[in-house]
Predict the structure of Disease resistance protein RPM1-like.
Amino acid sequence: MDSAPTALLVGKIMDILENEAYSIAAVRDEVDEIKQELVSMTSFLEDVDGKKTQTEAQKAWVTSVRDLTSDVEDIIDEFMYLMYEQQSRGRFARWIHRTIHIPKNLFYRRKIANKLQKITKMIKAIPERNKRYALDGVVGTSWDDISKWVKNQAVSSLFINEDELVGIDGKKQTLTAWLLNEEQHLTIVSVVGMRGSGKTTLVAKTFTNETIKRHFDSYAWIIVSQTYVIEDLFRSLIKELHQARNEDVPADLLSMGYRDLLQLLLNYLESKRYLVVLDDVWDIKLWREIRIALPDRQLGSRIMLTTRKEDIAFHCFGVESHVHCMQPLEKNDAWELFSRKSFSTFDGKCCPPELEKIAWELMEKCKGLPLAIIALGGLMSSKKSAAEWSKVYNGLNWHLTSHHLLEPVKSILLLSFNDLPYRLKHCFLYCSLFPEDYLIRRKRLIRLWIAEGFVEHARGVTPEQVADSYLTELVFRSMLQVVERNETGRPKSCQMHDLMRELALSTSEKEKFSVVYDGKEALEDIGARRLSIQTTDGGIKSCIGTSRPRSFLLFVTGIFSFSFSKSLPSGFKLLRVLDLEDAPIDKLPHNLVYLFNLRYLSLKGSQIKELPKAIGLLRNLLTLNIHNTKIQVLPRGISKLLNLRHLIMYRYTGEHMNFKTANGTRVPLNISKLKKLEVLSFVESEGNIIRLIGNMTQLTRIGIMNVKERDAMDLCDSIQKLKLLQYLALMVSDEEEFLDVNALSSPPPHLRRLTFAGKLQKVPPWFSSLQNLTCLYLHWTRLDEDLLPHIEALPCLGRLLLVNAYVGNELCFNRGFPKLTILELFNLPLLNKITIAEGVMKNLQLLTIAEALKSRCMELKALPQGFEYLSKLETLELLSVSMQLIESVQEGGVDHPKVKHINVITKYRSKCLIKAHLCSST
């Protein structure tokens, strides 16, 4: 595990050597030699990865490799900086520079070559030193000891007393109902959750219930774990099945091969209703291997499996299946469990008043994770004073990694971390740079990963798609927790569990991967490659000038005073990431434009008014985010950012119910030179910009403001050329201007999200062809034509938002809308009736009906007719609608029986803020 970040760093350096530095003749021999050494180092590190380092000698070895690879990275980056300086000059200036400075350049190249030679010698000296101190024989202990401990914990779950558990009664009833229902076909019941969430304990208490045992002819519990041999699983299954019925186990079981074992199982289960638990499933291939041994004789047999991976739990098994997702313990249940463990030796076995505040804060660190609550409670049971409790709270990171009572938590979390591929390990560690409980936006995270170089290149797949698959994998493995999903179920934001983050912070600092400064103590220069500042203390200037980070992230908390003064610290010269989102700054340092290595620059939410004229010097920049800054115009130099992929630059107006919700940014016409640009939002429509946008054929997302009627033909022509477009947002110049898109004969085939703001004379005829559309936002379109027949058959439409979009008095959902989960109706002034036919919008989960605060036209007096057909509805929001409608759904109201089973949110004549949907394309 210790070598994982180092292994990725080696791979990253090899990419640099092969793709850039290798072409430099002056150091070619040195590069070739060091590359071969790095290949060997990578192979060794991958072999070592997953082993638990025990000796100080091994720790020193890994540290040496890590430091050497960092030195190589510094040397290569410095050399590339020299090359950049030469290439950034004009042709004549380069000739003059070469003529005058040849001796200096030769000296510098020789210096680089000497450094590389020295590094190579040091790398070669490592195995020699190992032999000298007899380190080769020390290979470390594998993770088998932890895996064995996990298996023992699973077995012990079968013997836990019921009174030791909290918060499982309802969950047990759900599982029991699935096991005992009348379905005769084989059914799989999956229980999924992060490690330590109590899934094995829950299944164990269900499995051992006498009612369950009497229902089945035979039953077995087998632990699968990360590595298994299918023949051994068959033997365990046979043994468990026989012992459950007090039958003799076949004497020659150990000598049987695969065929005999399979035949024995099939014969034994031929006429039995059985229950088999597969505990701790890591890979879906297990089902492919074991399903043939578990026949479906339509006798009501059941298979239960526990897993930490969502993709396994939700796999299409080819039989009836149910999934139970483990949720954190409710606060009261968590407190009860924590109190049982922490205060069992206290008077009255309850929390003393003086400890209650700190005890709650410490318990909440566990975020409802039973394993963590039990372990932490056991640790605190010996702490009697508030000072002792505070000491643990403030040093939880150290206790988690060092205290034997928390070893179970550490081991469980490390087992999940250790199983990650090394690229995902880096991506996971990177998430710890965000503050505790921070909502990490998906798009921001994957763009940061790309900028860092974590994302591998794959032919035919964009880096964003690869990074998205990394995030999905971390979510499936329960390493990250999804907080918000979009209408298609895709994560929009996620969080790290507090204890996962503590572990990641500890690992990151030890590996010099990153360091987080929270102002609690002085920041030491450990040479970390990434620095995250998270403090309300403004006195951090001294700490940022001591290291040479590749990434600098600033998070504003409370009243924050921060400044780079006039220039960036000299150590920032090789930055790849500069994330100043929401930073209280209004000026940029003058030397920002010399960060040739910069891939990611975010000034989002800052007070910056303009970009440097020389912004074009940042030739490697991939992402530029100036959303919600005061920048209104981009300099002409922006066209020199030929590698730019994401340009995000809209500004909210603060008026969400009025026509104007956001402003774009004026751009130079030469922006069309940015052929790699994928995201462009939002630009002001000026001059020939609409016509030129058609040349930017890599665009997948675009937003255009102030569209004029006279631009209609150019607009449609440009949009038709954007074959990769997935997100399109258009806003006209004022609320009386018409948005004419009828000439668009063939819209982009992959269009997924569409936002129109402006009057429409009629529903565009091509709406019905948008087979991939998931979101449709119509804002102030004021259609008098019924929109619904044009979109009701769209197979993927998951979200429909109408803001002053329809001037009719009735909406009739007569058919279709099979995937619609969110329907939002805002400020439809004449609407007095909504009708929903049975079977329409059968998957709707959220329905919002709202009026503008200034509106006096609240015609809707009752719930939609057919509201009772919305069987999957979870939330109804009624915001500033008529009091008559609100009273009808309150207790005692005529419509209350229809809504009593769902979450109802009502606000009358109160400030209603609606999230601006024009920003959804970024």
About this structure: The longest helix spans residues 91-132. The radius of gyration is 31 Å.
